[in-house]
């Protein structure tokens, strides 16, 4: 008598559609699960890499767009100003969100996701800039500065850029040094002026010279 192959007696291999059943704890099943996890990690790594490249490209393009074409390389002070502008790049959008919320409906929820994303990003960038340093294209280097200006946004060329960590303390140090030098120059100028004013004038000689002229 033929045995029915319906119901629970039917065995099916999910991997190739055959009628072979794979036990959940078998070596074949364990190997299959490992392979699936490995493939999943590879795909996730690819997505993460692509996302990082896109974010880096977006940053480099912003710097490229806002750099002065007549300046290369950038000084520490100019680099600091550029970073300040970069950190504040979304401030106008934040103001627009606040304005729309104030005049629209659902004021408590409208655009809240975008607003939070901008705020968190800005806080992180400020913290990096004031502590360990913000990663930027090395526009203080002539070759790197020129490379950025000529770049056309190709993701495949991103590895050619040498990034650097730039800290606010670097700008503060330069400004402090300049201020100190300015005070020194002013003191020297004032000293020279005082010495000139303190030179004694021989009144008798001046009168004698006047009489000789007459």
Automatic annotation (TrEMBL):
Protein name as catalogued: Translation machinery-associated protein 16 homolog
Organism: Nasonia vitripennis (Parasitic wasp)
Coiled-coil positions: none
Signal sequence bounds: none
GO cellular component: nucleus
Biased composition annotated in UniProt, kind: Polar residues: 189-198
Annotated family: Belongs to the TMA16 family.
Source taxonomy: Eukaryota, Metazoa, Ecdysozoa, Arthropoda, Hexapoda
Annotated segments matching region Disordered: 1-21, 180-214
Superkingdom, natural source: Eukaryota
Pfam families: Tma16
């Amino acid at each position: 008598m033929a045995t029915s192959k319906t119901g629970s007696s039917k065995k099916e291999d999910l991997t190739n559609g055959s009628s072979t059943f794979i036990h959940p704890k078998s070596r074949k099943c364990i190997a299959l699960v490992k392979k699936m996890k490995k493939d999943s990690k590879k795909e996730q790594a690819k997505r993460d890499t692509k996302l990082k490249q896109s974010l880096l490209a977006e940053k480099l393009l912003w710097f490229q767009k806002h750099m002065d074409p007549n300046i290369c390389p950038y000084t520490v002070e100019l680099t600091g100003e550029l970073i300040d502008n970069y950190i504040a790049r979304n401030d106008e959008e934040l103001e627009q969100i606040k304005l729309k919320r104030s005049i629209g409906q659902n004021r408590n929820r409208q655009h809240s996701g975008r607003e939070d994303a901008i705020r968190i990003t800005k806080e992180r960038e400020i913290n990096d800039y004031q502590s360990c340093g913000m990663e930027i294209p090395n526009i203080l280097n002539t070759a790197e500065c020129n490379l950025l200006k000529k770049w056309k946004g190709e993701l495949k060329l991103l590895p050619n850029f040498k990034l650097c960590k730039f800290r606010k303390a670097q700008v503060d140090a330069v400004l402090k040094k300049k201020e100190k030098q300015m005070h020194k120059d002013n003191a020297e100028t004032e000293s020279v002026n005082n010495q000139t004013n303190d030179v004694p004038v021989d009144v008798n000689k001046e009168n004698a010279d006047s009489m000789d002229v007459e």
